[in-house]
Amino acid sequence: MTDPDQREHAWKLLAERHPNLADYELPDPSQAAVMRALCKHISILDFEEGLGHADEVTVGAGIATMEPARTDDWGLSGLKRKAPAEPGE
Hints:
With 89 residues, the protein is of the alpha+beta class. The protein has one helix at residues 4-17; strands spanning 41-45, 54-60, 63-67. It has a 3-stranded antiparallel sheet with strand order 1-2-3, with no helix packed on it.
């Protein structure tokens, strides 16, 4: 963002979310970039459903769709579990 009002508003929102920044001034544009990100794909992780459970949300102009959780297992199916350690090892 190059517009000073937009940069200031973005810094205000960031400082509200992260109170540890409230005592700092907005960095000079030559020292720090302020960027706006428009997300298209969002992963929602829910470990209560199991390791790596994620639902995928796609957003766009006036539309949002949600796909079921990924079917991958994060590569864990090919791993062998270690044998339990013997007492005293």
